[in-house]
């Protein structure tokens, strides 16, 4: 029995050993087969991959959304730019590669090595940017010698391109490389070093629409870092396209009319608030901010006394001059200080206290009512009206009409201007308000400050019956595929503090300004088209020492700023315009002809116009 049990145990162990042996043999067979596959069947491919360490991920930048005018004319697009990079892992020996590269593209070797030294903390597998936008000639020089330049890689990236150089620069804005503070802020999630973002204007305000989403690809590169094949791609998503409210024809006309002077022009559809033109002069080329600006170019921009980087339409603050007489007339009519038939006599001056206040016309205007006062811009009439109203009632109507406050346009840093009150002066200077100061404010001088955009919104409201619209610069947003994402709608910002009856009187006077031979803007008339408007001549600081000289005899820096606000047609307005020419002299001679030509362009009547040859009499 014992012998039988012993034999059975031996058989059981033998069976276990056989099974284990089969398992071990099977395992080794699998390993052998796998090794055979890896080394013999797929060995060449794997050997190439292991030797070159070649699977890499590359980021692809999206194309930024394009920008069009209201009629679909392309203003801003993207062009291909060739950025030169080096991957240190593939470029060994680095010094020798850089030396060859320097010779081929005519860039100093020290400049290239400096870029590498500045980014030496970057992983050796990541590309270091040596030079942006190298141009097609340099690209060709590199491509024909790429086997002699290991680790040198040229990336094609979309680069912003402003087609109409300097046109609408202050509205569209520009791009620039994102800085460290912006990268660390919560405003730009997902952005990386080297990305370009909107820094000004439309480009900044509507960054979220324009930017798009980054893509990427998995590539195989050879031992020299050159792409052999693309393994996988996630396409970048282009930004959305913007259609602005501006009309390129009107915009370019406005800029041409302002050429050589400092000033601003803004035009608006008074029925919707859509901006038809926004021009600030002098302008600048936005492409230099994208392509790279030298220190000399920057110095020229910031040292220019005409301030080309300032958007004078919304940043410029000027005394409104006689354009403010519209406010004075509204306040006086609404408060019952005057009616349509109230007259004052103008001998060419007005005595108040121990001072004599002059009218712009030394011989005077004789008997004047409110219509004639607006038509011929009689200072003496508005001196007396302002005296009867007082500063606080004048200010109340001005503020209620939108002056002294930002209009709300979707652009950065809009200035507020200033409408003074007696309390403001006391708080600001510690001195009580003086009666003579009211006379100055009544004709738009003194402490009053407004922007051309504020005057445009106000003029549009007069034109359309009293509605103040928020200025709109974006008409619509479309996806890259062409579907509508957003369409802007007019936004009522308030109403003028004026009755229908008062407004009709004001509009009658403004129509006479242009269409009556004695009107200060008689030069602005257009045959077959009724235009209404108001001129203004804003004196600048320092004029007190130059009294007695005519506007033409003054040095340029002491000449008055020239204003003109207008709308057309008078009875069914389709366009309103605000013009300011710094140190231009009289509003009638410097600003009114500009508005006239813009209105003619808008209505397609500008083929034979020659605004630079216009000469007019010296009216206010």
Question: What is the compact description of this entry?
Answer:
This protein is an alpha+beta fold. The protein contains 21 helices and 23 strands. The chain is elongated and about 140 Å long.
Question: Any chance you could write out the topology, listing elements then pairs?
Answer:
Layout: H1 2-41, H2 43-52, E1 55-60, E2 67-68, E3 74-86, H3 94-105, H4 109-118, E4 128-131, H5 135-143, E5 152-162, H6 169-172, E6 174-177, H7 180-184, E7 196-200, H8 201-205, H9 207-210, E8 215-221, E9 227-234, E10 241-244, H10 248-257, E11 263-268, E12 275-281, H11 287-291, H12 295-303, H13 325-334, E13 344-346, E14 349-352, E15 355-358, E16 366-368, H14 370-376, H15 379-389, H16 391-400, H17 422-429, H18 435-442, H19 452-464, E17 467-469, E18 474-478, E19 484-487, E20 492-495, H20 500-515, E21 532-538, E22 561-568, E23 575-581, H21 587-602
Parallel strand pairs: 2-10
Antiparallel strand pairs: 1-8, 2-3, 3-4, 3-5, 6-7, 8-9, 10-18, 11-12, 11-23, 13-16, 14-15, 17-20, 18-19, 21-22, 22-23
